[in-house]
Amino acid sequence: MPVITTIEDLRALAEKRVPRMFYDYADSGSWTESTYRGNETDFQSIKFRQRVAVNMENRTTKTKMVGQDVAMPVAIAPVGLTGMQHADGEILAAKAAEKFGIPFTLSTMSICSIEDIARNTQSPFWFQLYMMRDRDAMVRMIERAKAARCSALMLTLDLQVIGQRHKDLKNGLTAPPKPTIGNIINLMTKPRWCLGMAGTRRHTFGNLVGHVKEVTDMKSLSSWTNEQFDPRLSWPDVEWVKEQWGGKLILKGIQDVEDAELAVKSGADAIVVSNHGGRQLDGAETSIRALPAIVAAVGDKIEVHMDGGIRSGQDVLKAWALGAKGTYIGRAMVYGLGAMGEAGVTKALQVIHKELDVTMAFCGHTNINTVDKRILLPGTFPTA
Can you give the pLDDT at residue 218? Predict the structure, then answer.
């Protein structure tokens, strides 16, 4: 087993162990992938101010996200098809998050169901919802999230229409994979993955198949999904979801100050500055560059989180310094899961936490809650 010291180590191992179509599904962006790549590279230009002769004992990265205690300002992002990266993937990722003390967010398009996560964990988790035309199906899904004791609902706003990822089309992405010659040849090189999948019954979208009318198999699910993502989504719909849910509501996909202000008016508890990991609008502003203006506009009125491009604890600290009160990891989690299952997700969290903790100390702080943009070198970070 190679020595794992970075998220990149986990990515390289996942690429070897996960079937091509599912690895590419996670490790891709829309169109030219410029926003996908920019999300990560724009962090690199931001530099820290190193401080010395400061007592670095008794450090803590503990804080809160939407009122919930967290071991560090990081949550696991909702990622569709996580259960195709590794057998029972969402369950394993949720267990790792629970043990580490951070929130886990389950995607609507997950392989393991809401009930699967509830049965296999004790801590409340979060559930991510897409706005769909079938409002009855949405009401039932929200009620299932309530029954599973989910402590927050995350409504994704930036998937009214679906951005094109070329790799998914070329790979013929399905869950489970179709038995084509190309897929069979690729699967023969992934015995660990195949053995895991042979040992579980969870091979398709657990939150939809059997729970939504007229969705009984992959064929009907595919047509239903294409028809159901609702391009008519508007702010009154957000208010409708808030009324149906009644609990903590997080709005994901905010990239513009005007939309952030509308999110405040909607009564949401938090927003996630996000371009969907570069998977929707290619050419959009990167999340870390969009963050400061949104924090300046609404940071005193609503809790601002961000995702997109986080591959290290240093990235988490930079986002926090620029005003994000929480961050999300999607690909970093997926790489860990694909590489080593639950142990890989735990390793990803350990890597990020150690980098966050040590970098915070080098910047002269022992408590994450005292950190602000003064730890960053002037002129190297985006401003409002």
Answer: 61
